[in-house]
Specification:
- With 143 residues, the protein is mainly alpha-helical.
- It has 2 domains: 61 residues, no CATH class; 81 residues.
- The chain is built from 7 helices and no strands.
- Helix 1 packs across helix 2, helix 2 crosses helix 4 and helix 5 crosses helix 6.
- The chain is globular, with a radius of gyration of 17 Å.
Length: 143
């Protein structure tokens, strides 16, 4: 539903426009403040659902849990690998989904191979650096 909304509605086009260049979106007539607030409210709702799922899965949730730090690294890696630009204006929900699958399989493979967790962090960090480098290269080539 969210992929459809981003791809096929005026709100989705406004989100991409604000993410790419807020000043240009404002000059084009987009209410930047309203668009940002709607995106933040939607993300807050999705995070509340994720917290609810974690309570059901683990019995409790702590905002300072170490899995949150690992989850942040995994999420950033997944979206960058999925083709979402860290600088805004590009990407899709489907790309983020496939990026999350790639990161999950990568991490699971390292665990099954018996890799040290510190090496897992290092390799995921290298994956982030490689993905950002490719993203920057694509931006330079397409500009």
């Amino acid at each position: 539903a969210l992929a459809y909304a981003l791809r096929s509605t005026a709100w989705g086009r406004h989100v991409y426009a604000v993410g790419d260049d807020p000043e240009a979106a404002q000059l084009a007539g987009v209410d930047v403040h309203r668009t940002l607030m709607s995106v933040y409210m939607l993300v807050g709702f999705i995070c509340a659902l994720a917290g609810w799922v974690m309570i059901g899965r683990f019995g409790s949730v702590s905002p300072s849990a170490t899995t949150g730090v690992i989850g942040n690294i995994q999420a950033i890696t997944a979206v960058v690998i999925g083709g979402i630009s860290l600088f805004g204006g590009r990407g899709s929900i489907l790309g983020a989904f496939f990026g999350a699958l790639i990161v999950g399989v990568f991490e699971l493979g390292l665990r099954m191979a018996g890799a040290n967790p510190q090496w897992t962090f290092l390799l995921i960090g290298a994956l982030i650096i490689a993905a950002v480098a490719v993203d920057q290269w694509i931006r330079k080539v397409s500009a």
